Structure formats: structure tokens, C-alpha cells
Amino acid sequence: MNNAGGVFLRRYWALGRLADLQRALELWQQAVQATPPDSPDLPGYLNNLGNGLSDRYARTGQLADLAEAIRVYEQALQATPPDSPDLPLLNNLGTGLRARYAATGQLADLAEAIRVYEQAVQGTPPDSPDLPSLLNNLGTGLRARYARTGQLADLAEAIRVYEQALQATPPDSPDLPSLLNNLGTGLRARYARTGQLADLAEAIRVYEQALQATPPDSPALPGYLNNLGNGLRARYARTGQLADLAEAIRVYEQAVQATPPDSPDLPGYLNNLGNGLRARYARTGHPWDLEEAILVTQQAVARTPPDSPDLPSTLHNLGIGLRARYAGTGRLEDLEEALKVNQQAVQLTPPDSPDLSRYLLEQGDALAEKYVLVEDLDSLEPAISCYEQATFLSLTLAPYILQEVARRTLGTTKQLIVHGKVTDALSLTTRLQALTAQQIPKRGDALTRPKPETIA
């Protein structure tokens, strides 16, 4: 039964038919039930069942499958002798936990995933063919934690283990594209933090190398295309070369077209395509780019599960697009909808997330715009509250965002002055200066979070 399950799984990989995956799962469940608890074969059968459940989760996004996969991986490890060299069990458990973190945002799952990855790497001989894969997964866990906490040490360690994994990988290995892709993503993240163009150029190079090594029918192809698009769009933002942006949009479109409509990855690809189109609108002013950007971002929001940690970012991008359309057409409905989705993004973001500052800044800008242009007096105090919270968070959690906070608040101050609201501009400046002075404490002093303003 176990071997027959493997046959059906390989056919699912080849043809993508869910019925084959379902049959593999049924056979592995039967194999587990028919195997004595002290059998040396039980851990392998449980591992295969967990792999099948993980594959079905990757296809359908059903969290129940992922939870069951983690449970059977843990059961397999408990049934494995402590001196067993069967390290793939640790690797698979780590991958399941990391996937659940990606779906739910629970940091405890990510920390446990990193711990079991490190355990797997430490127990693997340096000449083992399994080592590159284990290092790759450890790097991905560390990079995910960096994305959540902003700790640069995690990102530096992720890049180091990715490079170590590549050095240990033969040039004809089918795993090479994945390793290159992940190294590129780590380098691009470091570029975003430090601004070193050399990191971005190297990221784009390894993304292109990954694509060249990937078969055109590979299910991994959309993800690699999407990441190359991200690299090209980042370079456009730095250099202003429209050719980079045009190429980014082209590969984003390829990624969307190559992705099954029920894939949990599709919302992210749509979101990035929307970002690219909106960037081109900002450069060229062609309204159809903005309309298409809003449309695909709305599709991304609609396809994103309500408990997904990616939802706040997608809502944030939709809000930016709607506010841009308001600026072009003056339609108050767009500004009101932008405020609504911005507020959703703020409310759904964990309070310790470095992204929260940016979402608060966007909401503050939209509220200030409503106050200045629509003469909505009730919008000023919530706007200032958003700027205060963003300033506090950048000082305490994400100091690398301080420059963005200063730029955005200065822009609002100038806008208030231009429209004759000098007293309001002075109030905003004074309150932010007072908050900044308060939040640079003497050693041992506690920081005081500003009270958030309720937005109706």
C-alpha cells in the first residue's frame, strides 16, 4: 500500500490531478493503520502521509490538511529511534511548521521550525547529498523571521546558509533553481534594508539563472518569475529605467498566467502585478495602468484568506491605488474606500510588525488629505494619531523606517501650510517633536506608546 501510494503521488506530480493525490492519501492512511506501532516501517509511512497532506494543502490551502501533516510528522519522529539517521523527518516537520506560520502568523511555529531545521543540519554529514536542502530550508526559516522582526542578523545568517547550500549543490541538480531563487530573495531583502545596489544586481542575476535552469512546465516557474519581477521593479525604483519596469510587468503577467486559479500563491502574484502597473501609472500617467492595477489588487484581496498574514499588505496596496485614483478623478468614493481598506490593514497587522508603521503612515496621509481637501474636520486628530503611532513604532521597532516617517509627515505639514492651515501644521510638528524627545529615553527608562485615536 505504501509503494502504491508513491505511484499515485508521482502521477499527481506529473499530471496535477487531485484524484491521484487523494488515492495516494487513502493508501498511506491504510498502510499506517495496518502497521504495528513498534514496526520500524511506521515512521516512513507516517512521513509519506504527511508529505501527501502537505501537497494537498499546497494545492487547496486547507489548513486542516497542514495541521494533520504536522501531527503525523511529529508522530513519525516520536516513533523514530533517537540515533536514527532519518533526518528528512525533521526537515519535513520544519517545513510544515513554517507553512503554518506563513498561513497564520504564529511566531511560535516559525521558531520551532528554525529549531528543528538547525537540529537537522547539525546531524547531517558535510558530504551528505541532503545537506543543501536542509541548509536551504533553514535559510528560508531565518529569512521569514527577519521579515517579521526586522533583525538583520537573521537575514545575514540566511544568506550565508543559502550560499553554503549552493556550494554543496552539483550544477546539474534539479534543486539548483530553488536554491538560486532563495538566495536571490535573501539578497533582495538585504538590498531593501541597506540600499546596496550590488546586492540587488546579484539578486537579479541569480533569479535569471534560476529561470534558465527551470523546465517550462515546472510548478515552481510562477514563483521564480514573480521574484524576478520583484527584483526588476526594485531596480526600476532605484534607477528609473522604464525597461526594468516593463520587464517586471511582463514576467508578473507570465507568473499569473502560469498559476492555477485555486493556487494559494495566486493572490501574491496578482498583488505584485498590481504594484508594477501602479508604478508605471505613477511614471507615465496612463489611466488604464491604474485601473488594471486596482482591478488585479481587488482580485488579490478577494482571493486572500481573511486570516492570512499577507492580507494587510494587499489591502495596503489597494488603498494606495484607490487614493491615486481619487487624486486623478476627485471621486470621494475612492478616498472613502481607501480609508476603509487602510484601516483594515492596520487592524489586521500584529503590533510588533515592522510593516505597521508604513500602514499607519498611509492611513495618516489619507486622513490628512480628507481634512485638507474635503474640509472634514473630524479627520485631523485621527491623522495626527496615525503619525504619532508610526513615529513611535519606527523609534522602537523599525528605526530604518524613520526616514520614511520623516518624509511623509513633512509632506503633510507642507500640504497643511499650502492650504492655509498653519496652526494645524504647527500642532502636528510640535506633537511629533515632543513624542520623539520622549521616546529617546535615558538608559533603563520605559517607552510610552501613544494612545491610538479611534477612527469612525
Shape, per Cα inertia axes? elongated
Bin the strand percentage: under 5%
Specify the helix fraction band: over 70%
Main sheet, how many strands, which sense, barrel? none
Question: Can you count the beta strands?
Answer: 0
Structural class: mainly alpha
Task: Please tell me how large the radius of gyration is.
Answer: 24 Å
End-to-end CA span: 59 Å
| Contiguous uncertain segments of 5+ residues | 441-456
Count of helical stretches: 20
Order of helices and strands: HHHHHHHHHHHHHHHHHHHH
Structure characterization notes:
The protein is mainly α and 456 residues long. Helix content is 76%, strand content 0%. The chain contains 20 helices and no strands. The protein has helices at residues 2-15, 18-33, 42-60, 63-78, 88-104, 107-122, 131-149, 152-167, 176-194, 197-212, 221-239, 242-257, 266-284, 287-303, 311-329, 332-348, 356-374, 380-396, 402-418, 422-438. The chain is elongated, with a radius of gyration of 24 Å.
In short:
This protein has 456 residues and is an all-alpha fold.
Key words describing this protein structure:
single chain; mainly alpha
List the helices and strands and how they pair.
Blueprint: H1 2-15, H2 18-33, H3 42-60, H4 63-78, H5 88-104, H6 107-122, H7 131-149, H8 152-167, H9 176-194, H10 197-212, H11 221-239, H12 242-257, H13 266-284, H14 287-303, H15 311-329, H16 332-348, H17 356-374, H18 380-396, H19 402-418, H20 422-438
Helix pairs in contact: 1-2, 2-3, 3-4, 4-5, 5-6, 5-7, 6-7, 7-8, 7-9, 8-9, 9-10, 9-11, 10-11, 11-12, 12-13, 13-14, 14-15, 15-16, 16-17, 17-18, 17-19, 18-19, 18-20, 19-20
